[in-house]
Amino acid sequence: MTVISVIIGSTREGRFSDQPANWIAHHLRQRDGVETRLLDLRDFPMPFFDQPVSPAMPGRAPYSNEVVQKWTAEIAKADGFIFVTPEYNYGPPAVLKNALDWVYPEWNRKAAAFVSYGGAAGVRSVQQLRQTATELQLAAVRSSVHIPVATLWAHFTGGDVGAGLAELSGPAETMIDDLLWWTAALRTARASA
Predict the structure, then answer these.
(1) Which of 24, 89, 101, 104 is the most exposed place for a label (fewest CB within 10 A)?
(2) Domain of 51, in residue numbers
């Protein structure tokens, strides 16, 4: 069974991210052999990373924070990830970047994809996350889903968010195809290493 974790990258009150996260998780659940998990950063209230030793340091002791330990264990269980991220000031939210920074080897050599929204449909947030993914040895797939502002605005005005997301089913399926291909290839490579 392939485990894909959908990470909800916003913790704001009244957030939109639940809707695209559940929508993309629904698409994943239609695939045979895929276990889909939703990881909500609200459930992992980690402090800002402040440790004297980087998580990339070989042989370092595990961090003592229980929430960080729980988060790290969840990342270790997954074979691949879909990050659902807003764009704040041309980048991802601090809470998502912080969640990435607390972990290192558990991210390594796994595939990642992105669903974004916000200014410019979240494209600039994804650009920054791709750079971070490279440093974490995550393989970011080329395909992404960028939700138009009209669909985001529908969330705040009582419009039909579902209809806006449904229009993105084609790009969602392409992204999932790519993610699962890379997830399988990397899982095979990790097993043979």
Answers:
(1) 89
(2) 2-192
